[in-house]
TrEMBL record:
CDD domains the record matches: SLC13_permease
Compartments where found: Membrane
Source organism per UniProt: Natronosalvus rutilus
A Pfam family annotated for this UniProt entry: CitMHS
GO terms under biological process: potassium ion transport
GO MF entries: monoatomic cation transmembrane transporter activity
UniProt protein name: SLC13 family permease
Keywords: Membrane, Repeat, Transmembrane, Transmembrane helix, Transport
TM region positions: 20-39, 46-64, 76-96, 116-140, 204-227, 430-462, 474-493, 500-525, 537-553, 560-578, 598-618
Length: 620
């Protein structure tokens, strides 16, 4: 196969496809999709639904009738991804991934390379068989704990955690939703290109292992030198979030109208910018008090507000300003009845798009908000009314049982492990056996992965690994809607000839280059597009174009499909391209440039390794 690496120069096609009205309309829809994905003016699932509507309304030009428009919901890839997300949720309920991380943490100690080694070793293999989004969500608190116990900055480990999950996703067909979608597109295009087919379970595992080893070695021996210590080891949250500047103690004086009143009365009197996060009554400290909690004479209210409001409190007759806590010791009770930690807004959170209302947050989640980071930057002054986005990080104080409940939900990722976590650990062997069965049935091609995955879902419920009502919580519905929306867009690209036209433009521009270089260019372009839009959308847009380009220059279409698939699933240049990058943004205290600093060399390295690997294993 090595001879295929030295393929002759790509030949420019002699016939230019006609630029029809149909092609222009479909390309216009593509531009609309790219703009909406890039600007995030609409949620990703709403954008996907809009694409279905637009394609169906423009049926005379797009060729997508209403039935074809909604066909993505019944597509094999969509249903398979849904089933795999549920199976990943079942594994998560057993605590298996966290237990693996804990056992490896004992080995890591205070050696940064050992810590990185266990991070990669715990993450990459797991991401080959479980969706990497929940894997990272589960391991963020474990890796943070490894860093703190080893006196290492979490900033040194959290981006490697995300990157390790991405390369691990390329070990098997089920590692990422992108792989499953690419397999479905390849099967559909196989009607016109005999070289293409639906991927088997371990179709590209040999190359995936090389990518994991290359990426892992880079992260362990090179990457940490490029990452700054944004968060100091064993960081003092109060200092990091400058909480002391925005927290005040106010005492309820003898003749105060608040005596005998409630927290709601105090909020109404002191103003909407003042949030009561604690009540100190005698020697007891109540964290995240409810609105109906009673206030007595001599109680001290610990409030979070802005500097102007703190100054205003000095003139309120009902209370007396008695001090400003300056350290965690003064804010966090010694008996750990209220734990300070960070919560990362997750992809499926009900908080996304909502304006932060600390009072409502306290009532809904039983946690008091003390600080906020948006895209790594501290929001120091006014946090009330700030619109929350995926990856925003809230500093909160909450009882241990609250953190345990939140860690098992889908709204937030808890960046510090609760002291008392409840898992169905006795179901772990059953969950593992079910996953092995699903993989084995698909790998032996006894039944398609779609059927084996759905059977695995049923088995998880029957055996008690998952409760029936937990099935829906385990699904990342925005991904399902995204798949359903972009699949008909891919069909329109193929049927109208838009993909062939774009392929002609690419080949006519790079027609003088060797085939191997054209393959590499498709990898690079796909990677850059994925940084702007979702990885699933980039696969739908790029695979038809890549296949048409390969056919035009007489190359192997399968090689180009693999190049696009690998590039779309490994995006390292920024926090936006992949959801796991967003999950570590706040807890790592990162800036946008940190991803590029460590990710650009890795992206370039893997582009060369992957393209050469494709040429060696499958030929170009």
């Amino acid at each position: 196969m090595l001879s295929s690496v030295c393929a002759p120069l790509a030949q420019e096609p002699t016939v230019q496809p006609e630029l029809t009205t149909d092609i222009l309309v479909v390309l216009g829809v593509v531009v609309l999709a790219l703009v909406l994905f890039l600007t995030e003016r609409l949620p990703i699932d709403v954008t996907a639904i809009l694409l279905i509507v637009v394609l169906a309304v423009l049926e005379p030009w797009t060729g997508v009738d209403p039935s074809t428009g909604i066909s993505g919901f019944a597509n094999d890839a969509t249903i398979t991804v849904l089933a795999m997300l549920i199976l990943s949720g079942g594994i998560a309920r057993t605590g298996l991934v966290q237990e693996l991380g804990h056992r490896m943490a004992a080995f890591a100690g205070d050696s940064i390379r050992k810590q990185l080694f266990v991070t990669v070793l715990a993450t990459s293999p797991a991401s080959g068989f479980l969706n990497n989004t929940p894997v990272v969500a589960l391991l963020v608190p474990v890796v943070t704990d490894i860093a703190n116990r080893g006196n290492t900055s979490p900033s040194k480990l959290l981006i490697p955690l995300s990157y390790a999950s991405q390369v691990g996703g390329m070990l098997t067909l089920i590692g990422t939703s992108t792989n499953i979608l690419a397999s479905d597109i390849s099967a559909r295009l196989g009607a016109d290109y005999p070289e293409l087919h639906r991927f088997s379970m371990f179709e590209f595992t040999q190359l995936g292992v090389i990518v994991v080893l290359t990426g892992g070695l880079y992260l362990i021996f090179v990457g940490h030198y490029l990452l700054p210590e944004r968060i100091p080891p064993q960081a003092d949250y109060v200092a990091e979030y400058k909480v002391g500047d925005y927290i005040a103690d106010v005492e309820i004086i003898a003749d105060s109208p608040l005596v005998g009143g409630t927290v709601a009365d105090a909020t109404e009197l002191l103003g909407p910018e003042v949030d009561v996060v604690q009540i100190v009554h005698g020697g007891d400290r109540l964290v995240a008090p409810r609105q109906e909690t009673r206030i007595e004479e001599g109680d001290v209210l610990v409030v979070r507000t802005d500097r102007d409001a703190i100054t205003m409190l000095e003139g309120v007759a009902a209370v007396e300003l008695v001090g400003n806590p300056q350290s965690a010791a003064e804010i966090e009770p010694a008996d750990s009845e209220g734990i300070l930690t960070e919560l990362v807004v997750s992809l499926d959170s009900q908080l996304v798009g909502e304006r932060l209302d600390p009072e409502h947050f306290r009532e809904e989640f039983n946690a008091a908000v003390l600080g906020l980071r948006h895209r790594g930057e501290l929001v120091a002054e006014r946090i009330v009314g700030r619109r929350l986005e995926v990856g925003d990080t809230l500093l909160v104080q909450a009882p241990p049982e609250t953190l345990d409940r939140l860690s098992r939900g889908d709204d937030v990722i808890v960046a510090r492990e609760p002291p008392r976590r409840e898992y169905r650990s006795d179901k772990a062997p059953i969950a593992v056996a079910i996953m092995i069965g699903v993989v084995a049935v698909a790998a032996l091609e006894l039944y398609p992965i779609l059927l084996s995955a759905l059977a695995g879902v049923v088995a998880m419920v029957v055996t008690g690994v998952l409760e029936p009502n937990e099935l829906y919580d385990a699904v990342e519905w925005d991904i399902i809607f995204l798949l359903a929306g972009v699949i008909p867009l891919g069909i329109a690209l193929e049927q109208t000839g838009a993909a062939a036209y774009l392929a002609f433009l690419v080949v006519s521009t790079a027609g003088f280059l060797p085939t191997l270089v054209v393959l590499w260019l498709f990898y690079i372009v796909t990677g850059l597009i994925t940084e702007l839009v979702s990885n699933n959308a980039s696969v739908v847009l790029m695979i038809p174009v890549a296949v048409a380009a390969a056919a035009a220059i007489g190359a192997n279409p399968l090689a180009f499909v693999f190049a696009v698939t690998f590039a779309a699933s490994t995006t390292f240049l920024g926090p936006i391209g992949y959801q796991t990058n967003l999950f570590v943004y706040g807890p790592g205290g990162y800036r946008f440039t940190d991803y590029f600093r460590v990710g650009a060399p890795l992206q370039l390295l893997l582009s060369v390794v992957t393209v050469l690997g494709i040429a060696f294993f499958w030929g170009v």
